Amino acid sequence: MRLDKYLSEAGIGSRSEVKKIISKGHVTINDLLVKDSKINILESDVIKVLGNIVTYEKFVYYMLNKPKGVVSASKDEVNQTTRQLITDYKKDDLFNVGRLDKDTEGILLLTNDGLLSHQLLSPKYHIEKTYHVEFRGDFLKTYCSSFETGIILNDGTVCKPAKISLINDHQALLTISEGKYHQVKRMFGSLNMGVTGLKRVSFGPLKLDSSLASGEYRKLTPSEIQKLRMLF
Ligand code: URA
């Protein structure tokens, strides 16, 4: 691969930006200064920009603790987006794995691995997602079995069986294995309860990392990526 293409794909900058960086003498290959962008590099070569080794990963995987008030999108004219929160990744091929509502917080994955993302979202695989739900209204005793057999939304849509565990009169953990639009809010709404707070605490085998403050993110570990891949 050409040096300028490699650096650009590694997220150092656009093709023209990296050409400038190279011509300024900021780049070395195996500790030898190079100024030619067109030079071809080998997999075994060690490339440094300003003395820092550049590693090129084809796929990247992030876990974000999405804050309220941020939209699950790459671009938005008005609101801050989840993509904007991942500040150390510069390329434009990073996407959310599904979406959370603007007022929902919690675990959201972002990746440029389109196949894995597609599989995680596919209704074929029933990936479980658990939400911590705060709600108003009365949770009647019979509702547990309604969730467990399959809630019928107000528009007649039948949901798959879900798992619910009540924490107290106004909080519950709900696990669903599908991703209909506003699903949790609509499930509670169909039983005359209003969701007042919603946080996703797990996505498939991954739990929200409790060390991530709201708005913080980190890369998935190799074993977490492996756990996701093992689902398919
Ligand atoms: N269900 C909802 O209602 N909203 C979300 O953001 C996620 C699940």
Walk me through this protein's architecture.
This protein is an alpha+beta fold. The protein has helices at 3-9, 15-23, 82-85, 114-121, 143-149, 183-190, 222-229, and strands at 27-29, 32-33, 47-49, 52-53, 61-66, 95-96, 104-111, 129-136, 163-168, 171-176, 194-203, 206-207, 217-219. Helices cover 22% and strands 26% of the residues. The strands form 2 sheets. Strands 5, 6, 7, 8, 9, 10, 11, 12 and 13 form a 9-stranded mixed sheet that branches. Bound molecules: uracil (URA). Residues 100-101, 104, 182-185, 198 line the site of uracil. Uracil binds at residues 100-101, 104, 182-185, 198.
Q: Any key phrases for this structure?
A:
four-stranded antiparallel beta sheet; Alpha-Beta Plaits; 26% strand; elongated; 232 residues; alpha+beta; 13 strands; 3 domains; binds uracil; nine-stranded mixed beta sheet; Structural Genomics Hypothetical 15.5 Kd Protein In mrcA-pckA Intergenic Region, Chain A
What structural class should be given to the helix and strand makeup? alpha+beta
User: Would you identify the CATH H-level superfamily of the largest domain?
Assistant: Pseudouridine synthase I, catalytic domain, N-terminal subdomain
Euclidean distance between termini CA atoms: 32 Å
Q: Secondary-structure element order, as H and E? A: HHEEEEEHEEHEHEEHEEEH
Q: Could you say what the CATH architecture of the largest domain is?
A: 2-Layer Sandwich
The residue fraction in helices comes out at 10-25%
- Helix count, DSSP H or I runs of 4 or more residues: 7
* Mean pLDDT level: 96
Name the quaternary structure: single chain
Q: Examine the coordinates and then state which fold CATH places here, giving the name of the CATH topology of the largest domain.
A: Alpha-Beta Plaits
Number of domains: 3
Strand content: 25-35%
Largest sheet: 9 strands, mixed
| Computed Rg | 22 Å
What is the CATH class name of the largest domain? Answer: Alpha Beta
User: Which descriptor suits the 3D outline?
Assistant: elongated
Give unreliable regions as ranges: none
